[in-house]
Design brief:
By secondary structure, this protein is mainly beta. It contains two helices and 30 strands. It has a domain of about 170 residues: 7 Propeller (Methylamine Dehydrogenase, Chain H).
Length: about 450
């Protein structure tokens, strides 16, 4: 597939981040994306760059509400040996079409990201680019791009030209009128092709959340998506956020689904939904095994904290091997968590991976009140609103990146936590934000997302 996140070809994965609410050239909510380049020492002292639709070679122009950076993903689309950054702009106006949305690629190269091309544009109120996933759905060795809006799903098959033209394009039909909530990609059945995983709610029942799977094949993604079923034969309870990765150290990618919203009627029938819950679904030769799902919340043994209404446990999810033992940990954001009497200061929980998936045993967490963590516990910071696990220094362990988009009245900020042989640690963690980046801070929502 080529380098997944190494934009400058130095051998170290890089971290891309988003501030979709940022003011650019005076336009509120135009948005920007940034990159912190990895190195032998990680990203603490490395070069950091910001890109907007006013940057040289980037398509489009900044406009109020574009939300450039609604989603970010990375892969080597043009097969030149450098990863490229795919950026969604859910509020982009296309001609006279309001909030049509669009998807742009910023090209990687020896000097890092520079210039770009348009990949996709939506139709009125599509919100295309709200969610993104990249994967090799047809197994030809070149990455493909999945762009999603509220209803729309567009698959672009690589390779891509430098003009942003894909080898082919397909719109996946939405036969059941579901509403997309998040998308991810990975090889869920071990056949060498990536598969699409998404969470959605039913069009006429907003609290009926399901997990949908589209298996890759020789022709890429087909027109049909199927719902993951639970032990009772009905749709497995889904959520609003999804990640794909190998938690149990077998040959199949697994699913981690965060169900952060706990205020719907159906949640009253799910005790584990209180405060939000995390559902783990192992992969297999036939795809995700919903009958073997494991569900955890903050009342589960070993999991830090306590389940409280509106904690939003599961508002962000990421999978990565933080200690190098071959098992993937699951990072779970809890941005609605109160710290003492401070409302919605936020936090993040790490669930260790085992052969049985996450058990809760050995779990630990971070917040801005944790010793050695920069910052202070403040109301509505929403620390944990976004999370990523990525090996930024090439040591085989994934560091943790955390966003707090509510920091300082929605200015937002970012944290990075080191990975060690025993897992993630607060000592040596650091934060950076608008002061480092030289950007307009007001309502920027920095830390709303990271590249997948």
């Amino acid at each position: 597939h080529g380098p997944r996140a190494d934009f400058n070809g130095d051998g170290y994965p890089d971290l891309a981040f988003a501030a979709p609410g940022a003011t650019v050239k005076g336009f509120k909510g135009a948005g920007y994306v940034g990159v912190a380049y990895g190195s032998r020492n990680g990203v603490k002292d490395s070069a950091k760059r910001v890109f907007t639709q006013a940057s040289a070679g980037v398509p489009g122009t900044p406009e109020a509400g574009d939300a450039f950076g609604s989603a970010v993903a990375s892969a080597d689309l043009d097969r030149d040996g450098y990863a490229d950054l795919v950026v969604g702009s859910r509020g982009e106006k296309i001609g006279a079409a309001e909030s049509a949305g669009g998807v742009t690629v910023l090209w990687g190269g020896p000097g890092g990201l520079a210039g770009g091309s348009t990949l996709l544009t939506g139709e009125e109120y599509d919100g295309l680019g709200r969610w993104l996933a990249v994967g090799d759905f047809d197994g030809d060795g070149t990455p493909d791009v999945l762009g999603a809006g509220h209803l729309a799903l567009h698959a672009l098959s690589g390779p891509f030209t430098r003009d942003g033209v894909a080898a082919s394009a397909t719109e996946i039909p939405n036969a059941d009128d579901w509403r997309n909530l998040d998308v991810a990609a990975g090889d869920l059945n071990g056949d060498g092709r990536d598969d699409l995983a998404l969470v959605a709610n039913d069009g006429d029942e907003y609290d009926a959340r399901r997990i949908m799977i589209g298996l890759g094949g020789p022709a890429g993604l087909g027109p049909d998506l199927t719902a993951v079923k639970g032990k009772n034969g009905y749709n497995l309870q889904g959520g609003e956020h999804i990640a794909v990765g190998n938690v149990n150290n077998d040959r199949y990618a697994d699913l981690a689904v965060g169900r952060a919203v706990d205020g719907y009627d159906s949640d009253l029938d799910l005790p584990l939904a209180k405060g939000g819950m995390l559902t783990y679904v192992p992969g297999s030769a036939s795809g995700p095994q919903g009958t073997k799902a494991v569900v955890l919340n903050q009342d589960s043994p070993g999991v830090p904290g306590a389940a409280e209404h509106s904690d939003n446990f599961g508002a962000s999810v990421a999978i990565g091997d933080t200690d190098g033992d071959g098992y993937g940990e699951i990072a779970v954001g809890v941005p609605g968590e109160d710290q003492g009497t401070v409302a919605s200061a936020g936090g993040l929980v790490v669930l260790p991976g085992t052969a049985a998936g996450p058990t809760g045993v050995g779990s630990y967490g971070f917040n801005q009140g944790t010793p050695d963590v920069v910052g202070a516990v403040e109301k509505n910071d929403r620390f944990g609103g976004a999370a990523a696990l990525r090996d930024l220094n090439g040591d085989g362990r994934t560091e943790l990146a955390v966003g707090a988009p509510g920091e300082n009245a929605d200015e937002g900020s970012l944290w990075v936590f080191p990975a060690t042989a025993t897992g993630l640690v607060a000592k040596g963690s650091f934060s950076f934000g608008h002061g480092t980046l030289g950007t307009v801070a007001t309502k920027a929502l920095l830390g709303s997302g990271f590249n997948r």
